[in-house]
Amino acid sequence: MSQPNNKELKLAVLIDADNVPYSNVKGMMEEIAKYGTPTTKRIYADWTRPNSNGWKAVLLEHAITPVQQYSYTQGKNSSDSALIIDAMDLLYSGKLDGFCIVSSDSDFTRLAIRLRESGMKVIGIGQKKTPTSLISACDRFIFLEVLDEVVEKKKPKAVAVPGETKKPVPEKPKAKIDNQTIELIESTIEDLGDDDGWAFLGDVGNLIVRKKPDFDPRNYGFAKLTPLLKSLTDILEIDERVSENKSIKHVYVRMKLS
Hints:
By secondary structure, the protein is an alpha/beta fold. Helix content is 34%, strand content 20%. The model has no long low-confidence stretch (mean pLDDT 85).
């Protein structure tokens, strides 16, 4: 799936620290950079709690502003209210093009809907346990577990010691592409196909995400949409067309003719 060409978008990144471990922040900020420039970065929590100590270095490294929110009532997440109020203030400032809400809490569903109603691009980031209501309220939703795997792959390989036998690291098996996802791909190709059934891959990827915001080839072990579709050669045909000046390759896909 082609990455969105939204480098110029000014984004507000609002993080619910109660729902995100600090170890996720590096991969998360790298992912957000693909969608725009985070001009505002805030994270909400009761920073007086002992378990917030690990955040200090991470916040300094990524220039994220911590917002103190005391827990006035036992068992209540007061950070939600502070984040929502700030989001509305930022919305009315008129200086942003979109928001990135980092949380797995369904309490932010109405906020995401309200921001989109105002013409904002809304990207959600959270764990796979995130309720469908919040996922569907976003333009795009990315799972933290997938970002963790990306960060692990980028880590430098250990230097081999002479004479030491290096044990092969088994490759993680790709997740099975379920029938629901296959049906989503098929219906999208049919929606966009020309008279011969061919659909431009970029349009296919964009429409799939609009239909299912949490769709991500990385959920199935593929870095991009193209290799994912190429793995479905029993039902799909891929056509790579080179432009007239031979500098750009356009990829088209259609259902395999019976």
